[in-house]
Write a structure and sequence with these properties.
- This protein has a five-stranded antiparallel β-sheet with strand order 1-5-4-3-2.
- It is built from four helices and five strands, in the order ααβααββββ.
- The N and C termini lie close together (about 5 Å).
- It is of the alpha+beta class.
- The chain has one domain.
- It comes from Natronococcus amylolyticus DSM 10524.
- Pfam families: DUF7988.
- InterPro entries: DUF7988 (IPR058294).
Length: about 140
């Protein structure tokens, strides 16, 4: 169950105000991934995940996403039990984009940077979104 709360709003605002360059960087990396496709989509998740992770790592964004997660938890008024690393379970690159996760006192804070969407019909296929959709939830 996803709960919309003050910590979620505070986290979303902090990311939008302080981490715009990282969101833009994710967007740029996603553009690089989709550029060589011969159509607007791919049916191979590995053509999204593998090059996206490599592009994020090359741009130094995986480390920045870890720092963003620490700041997001602070914005929510919480503390992390451990320092996040740019790897699962804290930072994961999926076929939609990066996902950050932190277990905090009220639950699990999940921050998604959706740069691709999954198209199920006739699918599955992966299509580049126009920009990056930021989704913050407390589960």
């Amino acid at each position: 169950m996803t709960v919309v709360s003050h910590p979620v709003r505070a986290t979303r605002r902090r990311i939008q105000r302080e981490w715009g360059a990282v969101v833009e960087g994710v967007d740029d990396c996603a553009d690089l991934v989709a550029e060589p496709w011969d159509t607007s989509r791919t049916t191979n998740a590995d053509r999204v995940v593998v090059p996206l992770r490599a592009a994020l790592e090359s741009a130094g964004l995986l480390e920045q996403l870890s720092a963003l997660l620490v700041d997001a938890v602070d914005a929510a008024g919480c503390e992390l039990g451990a320092s996040p690393v740019p790897a699962p379970p804290y930072v994961t690159v999926t076929s939609r984009g990066p996902i950050l996760r932190a277990t905090i006192d009220p639950g699990r804070l999940v921050i998604r940077f959706d740069a691709f969407e999954v198209v199920r019909d006739p699918g599955p296929a992966y299509r580049r979104l126009d920009g990056v959709r930021l989704d913050v939830s407390l589960e």
